[in-house]
Write a structure and sequence with these properties.
Layout lengths: L1 E8 L6 E6 L2 E6 L6 E6 L3 E3 L1 H7 L4 E2 L6 E2 L12 E3 L2 E3 L2 E4 L21 E2 L2 E2 L1 E3 L3 H7 L21 H4 L27
Antiparallel strand pairs: 1-2, 1-4, 2-3, 4-10, 5-13, 6-7, 8-9, 11-12
Length: about 190
Amino acid sequence: LVCRVHVREHPNADRLQLGTANGYQVIVGLDVQDGELGVFFGPDGQLSQEMCDANDLIGYTDPDTHERRGGYFPKNRRVRSQKLRGVPSDGFWTGLSSFVFTGVRPEDFVEGQTFTELNGIPICNKYITEATRRAAAGQGKQRKENIGFPKHIDTKQLKHYIDSIPEDSIIYITEKLHGTSGRYGLVY
């Protein structure tokens, strides 16, 4: 998601800043300016190999100097919540210059734009665990659908669409705890 980041001082690091992007706390470098436009990747995603290679985002140990080099992503390129210097980062935010390798110019991005590829070059996708892959292939536990309790799958996440709600709309707010979805049924 193309969005702005709002930065503040990191309490335990002199070469990092805390930022808020799309409602998530992220950790960014000192070169990032408050209100800068960039791209946020949520904690359920995976960066493409092309994106990581172009921006040296995968961490490794230099075979000659034995120093840690590259970014902080593991080889699986998963974006996840993690602590850096004792403070959680709940996603990944990067500046628009990280996408120059695709041929898209920074001025061509629009705030609120979402994408998974640019100019045919993959950038990211949803991270899928091995257990999920096995289940999708029919090798995991099979769940029987209960027709009395149908799944509800068409509700979008409010945080991604809040700016598109008309000003005079009537909004009903209910509570949903992370990781749960209520299922209701007509049972006789």
